[in-house]
Amino acid sequence: MLKLILITLLALIALAGNSVFARLALAGSDLDPASFTIIRLLAGALCLSTLLWLRSTQPGNTKGRWVSAAALFLYAAGFSFAYVSLDTGTGALILFGFVQLTMILAGLLKGQRLTALEIAGTLLAFAGLAYLMLPGAQSPSQSGFLLMAGAGISWGVYTLLGRQSSDAIGDTAWNFIRTLPMTLLLAVPFLNTLQWDTYGVWMAVASGALTSGLGYVLWYQVLRHLTMTLAGVLQLSVPLLAAVGGILFASEPITLGFVLASALILGGIGLVIAGRRAT
C-alpha cells in the first residue's frame, strides 16, 4: 500500500509538472504551441523506446492502441494551444475537472454506484470548478477554456483505456510512437509559423521525456488499483500542485479565487476518498 501511495503521488506530481513546463516554454520563450506538442511527443517516444529496448524481459503483445494514441495526441495538442492564454493553475484546474467528469460518467455507464459521500464530494469539487469560471474570479478566456476542456476529455479517455493495460512501459511507449504520424499532420498548417529557441525546446523535451513519458508509465501502473471515480478525483489535486509550481518557477501570482476554488476541490476529493473507504 505504501508503494502504491508513493507511485501515485509521483505520477500526480509528474502530471502537474507538464503544466509547469508548458507555461515556462509558451510564456517564457519563442516556442509556439504546435512545436511544443511535436517536440514533447517525440521526446516521450524516444525516451520510452530506449527504456523498452533496455529492459531485460519483453512481454508479448505490448503494441499500444491507435485509439489510445489518438486520445494522447488530442490531449497534448489541446493542452499546448490552451496554455497560450491560461496560467498554470487555472489550466490544470479546467483540464482535470473535465477528466473527472469524463471518468465519472464512464463509471456510471458501466454500472458503478456512487455512495452519498462520493456524490457530495464530486458536487463539491465541481462547485470549485464552477466558482473559478464566475466573472471576476480569474475567469479564463473562452478559447483557452474550450481547448483545455477538450484536452481534459481526451486525457480522461486515455486514462480509462489505460486501466486495461498489463504492461505500462510497453503500452505507453507504443502509444507515444503511434502519435508521431499525427504530429506530422499537425505541423502542416503551421509550417510558416513554427518558432523554436533553445530554452523552449529544452522545456518541451523535459515535459515529453520526464513528466509525460515516465510520468504516464507510473500512472498506468497505478490505474489498475484505483476505481474510475477515485482515479478521476485524485487528479483534481494536480491543479493545486501545478499552481504551486507556477508560483515557484514561473513567478505567477496566486489569487483568492484560486485558493477558494482549490479548497472546494480538495474538500471534494477528501469526501470521495472517505466515501470509497466506507464501502
Automatic annotation (TrEMBL):
Membrane association type: Multi-pass membrane protein
GO CC aspect terms: membrane
Keywords: Membrane, Transmembrane, Transmembrane helix
UniProt-annotated location(s): Membrane
Residue spans crossing the bilayer: 37-54, 66-86, 92-109, 116-137, 143-161, 173-193, 199-219, 226-248, 254-274
Record domain EamA: where: 4-132, 143-273
UniProt name for this protein: EamA domain-containing protein
Major localization listed first in the record, in broad terms: membrane
Protein origin, superkingdom: Bacteria
Signal sequence range: none
Protein species of origin: Reinekea blandensis MED297
Cross-referenced PANTHER family: AMINO-ACID METABOLITE EFFLUX PUMP-RELATED, INNER MEMBRANE TRANSPORTER
